[in-house]
Amino acid sequence: MARNFTQAKTSLGRCINSGNDLFGKFYDIFLVSHPSISPRFANTDMSAQKALLKNGINLAIMYAEGNPIGASGISRIRDTHSATKMNIEPGQYSYWLDSFIKAVSETDPQFGPEIEKEWRELLQMTINHITSGYGK
Ligand code: HEM
Fold first, then answer.
1. CA distance 74 to 70
2. Ligand 1 near 64 CB (within 6 A)
């Protein structure tokens, strides 16, 4: 039985309803999280990128809950982020994850350890899938 990530989903809803710019905050944090990150976004339209990531987070939730649309969406991202395409190194995902958690912690007024645990579990599932495709 696939599990339900209810706490992360309601946390995401609170972030979006808060009127704070979760995805903007995320990129502000992520870009300075390690010197290897900002050069990768030097030519990126960050407002388009925020919308792409919002969709990516929804896919990650679906993927973690066993939804086949989530699985195919995350598999597509796995392909674009692989060594022969965008070449996103597996070691960069820990900065991504910690930055996302920090952005949620600053945006969800009810953020706490249980919500953080659920977010980390669900996002780690997506990271494991994406990074397992790095060398393929
Ligand atoms: C689970 C984590 C991640 C998710 C869900 C994700 C999602 C996405 C999505 C949806 C796109 C749009 C293009 C596409 O659909 O392939 C994208 C582009 C991109 N991502 Fe990621 N990403 C993740 C991690 C990372 C990490 C760790 C880096 C490290 C620097 C990164 C760097 C990039 C870059 C450079 C682009 C292209 C930007 C451009 O078009 O200029 N991503 N990502």
1. 6
2. no
Q: Tell me, what's the pLDDT at 1? A: 60
Between the CA of 22 and the centroid of ligand 1 the distance, in Å, is: 16
CB 96 near ligand 1, within 6 Å: yes
Q: What class, spelled out in words, does domain 6-132 have in CATH?
A: mainly alpha
From CA 56, how far away is CA 74, in angstroms rounded? 8
Query: Measured between alpha carbons, how far is 60 from 88 in angstroms, rounded to an integer?
Result: 18
Q: Which tens digit of pLDDT belongs to each residue from 103-132?
A: 999 999 999 999 999 999 999 999 999 999
Using alpha carbons, list the distances in angstroms from residue 125 to 20, 101, 104, 117. 26, 15, 18, 13
Give the global pTM.
0.97
Atom of ligand 1 nearest to the CA of 123: 1
